[in-house]
UniProtKB/TrEMBL annotation:
Membrane-traversing stretches: 7-33, 86-106, 429-450
Superkingdom assignment: Eukaryota
Organism the protein comes from: Caenorhabditis remanei
Keywords: Membrane, Transmembrane, Transmembrane helix
Protein name: Uncharacterized protein
Amino acid sequence: MKILSSFNIFIVLLLVIPVTVSLLTSGLGFGYIEKEDDSRETCEVIDIAMEFGDAHVFLENLQKKCAARGRINKTSAPIKTRKGRAVILAVGGVVAGATALTIVVFDHLRNEERFNSIKKQEEIHKNITQLINNKSHLTQDLMMEMEGQINNNTYEHVVNTIFGTGDIEVVTSFFKVNLSEILHNMGFDDRMGLDAAQKLSYKFVCGHTSRHYQLQICGTENPTRRFGEVKLVAPPGNFGNKGTMYAYYKVPKFVVFTDRGPVSAISCQPFGNYYNCVESKGKCGYATYQSCEVKRVHTPNSVYVTELGDATVVASAVDHYSVYENGSDISFTDHKFPASGQLLIRAPHTTKIRIGDSTIQGRHDFMELKEVHMSEQIPQLDHAKLEEWMNDDDAIEKGFTDLEKERMHANVEFEWGLDSILHWFKSRVAEFISALKICAAGVIVIGIIYCLCCCYRCSKKATVLPN
């Protein structure tokens, strides 16, 4: 009675507590995943009013970089707008290193002695360029402070430096735009920092005077966007047909572990130190991998190799493998293959791992040989389905010879059933027909020989008869 109660409790626990899926994965980094069809473009529009005079040389050069057309109507959705002058935004987004450099340079230049000591335009040019490249929000203030000390060529160079690389961080920093706030408003996780700006674009549009401009910063919003750790997934599978066929589930290659659980991705593109992933469609996924299509490959040497990020995963039905170290092709050590049938390999550049007829070349600075568990129980094919699979050139990406087909059928485990009986009769009929063909060919040959002999005798008798 106690045993029965314990069993019932166990069943209840299985029904109440969800089973955790544990496929073999390899981490890539932090990123986000979203449904591609749900993305929509959105823009933040910033009005800019420069404090330079209308006929200032700097503004003349700035006019060369702005687009004459393309101003966005602030009332049209889904455009977001930011009113007022960009120059009144806070300076809090400046990175620590750039801020320190800015303060030092600015304080020195404000110091009368230091300011008066700057006689060479090259030094002014260098200081302003350094501030721009360090994405300082104080560059404009410095330029206003140095009014009259900067020549026309330097102003032209400043404008070219701001827009020359197309770096949105450089542009927004010069115009004192809080890029972190814009990224947050567009739905990007703050943990990504300004790396997420690589997913944005900008357009600089002329205004109604040389002092007025419009900066349009555009990106995408997506209500399905989720953030988390991005990982590669190894497809789970197993050998069949006595090791000559490997079957595995075609699980999407990527998975993102979000706060709402794992979500499979059909692709992940890196940007900076992060990843942008597209969510896979359909029922096939990390948590529902047994709903995925089954792929089968011919493995005549009982070895299947797949790449998992910076590692190599080998599934094999062989019982041992050899390790060749220090670039040697002769000296090796022999090792027993793991009982699970799967081995994860990371090896130094001078090391090779030989498993059956397959050789894995190392590509790391360290050695890691670890038993992993990614085996499944995908049933093997019966004779009818095996024949269909071998005749599908698109599925197997090769053609089987008659001898290979015969060997594949011979490796199917015998089970009493209609499929095995039909295959037995088909093979026996084929053998019987082959025997009949041989016999028929023999009879024909004998008949031809007999006819030739008869003709020879007749011709010989004819030559013996008198005229």
